[in-house]
Amino acid sequence: MHTYLKFQTNIAREKPSTLLNRETNCPFCDRETIFKEGVIISQQAPFLLIENKFQTLERAYQMVLIETETCEGDLSTYGKEHLHSLFDFAIHNWLAIEKSGKYRSVIFFKNHGIHSGGSIYHAHMQIVGLYDVDYRTHLLPEHFQGIVIDRSPGVEFNLSTRPRGGFTEFNVVLSDLKSLYKMGDYVQIAVHFLLNHMNKRYKSYNIFFYEYQGHIIAKIVLRAPGSPYLMGYSILQIPNNLDDTVQRVQSLYFSGAVK
Prior knowledge:
alpha+beta; HIT family, subunit A; ten-stranded antiparallel beta sheet; 10 strands; 27% helix
């Protein structure tokens, strides 16, 4: 059974795109206008959580979390201080909006690259309050289980053996908020691996965040042109080299040791 959201195409046509046309002025770099428009929900320099100017979904409230002051930089290259501060700001704002009671559920995700569903090059995330939909309806525990790459107290990093969309999906499962910074480290490793070692052709990924069964979970997904098996028949494909991928990540980032 599917869940549907109504998409307002007339509003979407007005959205700028700096992914396909880098000559277009970046709306997220223009902080002077952002402050003048009075759309800021929360801020902690250099991070801004703002109202999305283009509310393309009916029965939803869309927000944008701007990660940097300029178009330079990406999650895969952030220094540790910036990375950890970003995760602290992002996760706590998302959870606060979820607990506000205004929405049935609140989704939190990141697009990167032309195959990710995004339109703005500037590093950002999105938080969307859904008035009628609970995103957890279609989740199963097996979606976040996999071959362990590394683990630390309160957090596990694994490669999914039952991906939601097929092929390569990394999971970072946080059971203790005290380990939030380590979660950020694992997410950064997954993103860096996808962009630099897994598939250099597409340079696209998504990160999907979930609050599920007492855990905070990040699912990092390599994005490429969609599989016809999935799109046409809802048949998922799982690579036969999962163990090899785990060993590659361990050798590159953990010297082969699983803690």
